[in-house]
Amino acid sequence: MLSFCVVAALLSTTVVAVKPIHSHNDYTRAVPLWDALNLSIMSVEADVWWVPGDGKLYVAHTSGEINKSITLQSLYLGPILGIINGTVASATPISVANPLQLLIDFKTDGPTTYQPVLDALQTLRAGGHLTTYANGVLTQGAVTVVGTGNTPLASVVAAEPRDLFFDANIIQLYSTKPGVGLEWGPEIAPLASVDYSSVSNTAQMQELVRNAHDFGIRSRFWDTASSVSTWDTFFSAGSDWVNADDLTGVSNAWAAFEAA
Ligand SMILES: *[C@@H]1O[C@H](CO)[C@@H](O)[C@H](O)[C@H]1NC(C)=O
Ligand SMILES: *[C@@H]1O[C@H](CO)[C@@H](O)[C@H](O)[C@H]1NC(C)=O
Ligand SMILES: *[C@@H]1O[C@H](CO)[C@@H](O)[C@H](O)[C@H]1NC(C)=O
């Protein structure tokens, strides 16, 4: 136990070179979470289904693929807490200095799924590990939780304190505000995304990245091709979270891009 604590203390001061890579549908990897962390990829995504009869948030691509032993807690929240508190080993630490972005894609009804997700985060919240917006101040935690899919924006905006954030539509940052008298910003949406098929060309993508940065928001485009030239186009644009399934391929592309 002591040795774990010592390791944790050492790790927590280590800042890794974070890659601008997001592990799309991370739970479909051979080893969810660890495949990403082993490559210092600090953004992962879980599709979540709330099944009220079971009182469980399952992680699966479709409702037909639900496996009752695979929950948000078992696959992500438990291991993440263990890595933060030093009881679970990880090649890359998770800490305020090396935060993890956890995208929770609400597959079931937004308003119904919202409270169970907040409840599931309670242990991380109680440990002070979640990025939190309270009293007008955004405080970085070891884990930033961003809701996507059916996540209800109104509930996110109404929350005080707020530790479940929103994935905004990067195309609508100027045209559709998060609420009356509100502007988009990282205290509501640390991330803004869109299906890349909605983007006309590279020039528009570059402009959307700049727009997001003007709001202090990070960008992500999904449903992008899996190729080095595509990834390089996003790296060049300064797109913050390049959405990928081939984690080794995209990591190698990033290393080559950085070295060039
Ligand atoms: C991650 O790295 C550790 C330490 O190098 C290794 O033991 C483990 O098998 C790796 N896991 C995956 C999923 O690559
Ligand atoms: C469900 O998940 C558990 C834990 O990963 C695994 O051992 C089991 O084989 C899975 N069941 C099915 C039917 O895939
Ligand atoms: C550390 O994390 C593990 C794994 O989730 C958990 O079981 C344990 O209660 C945590 N301990 C502390 C002190 O937070």
Automatic annotation (TrEMBL):
Entry's family note: Belongs to the AIM6 family.
Domain of life: Eukaryota
UniProt xrefs under SUPFAM superfamilies: PLC-like phosphodiesterases
Organism per entry: Roridomyces roridus
One BP annotation, GO: lipid metabolic process
Name the record gives this protein: Altered inheritance of mitochondria protein 6
Any one Gene Ontology molecular-function term assigned to this protein's record: phosphoric diester hydrolase activity
Keywords, sorted A to Z: Signal
Signal peptide: 1-17
InterPro entries: HAT_RTT109-like, PLC-like_Pdiesterase_TIM-brl
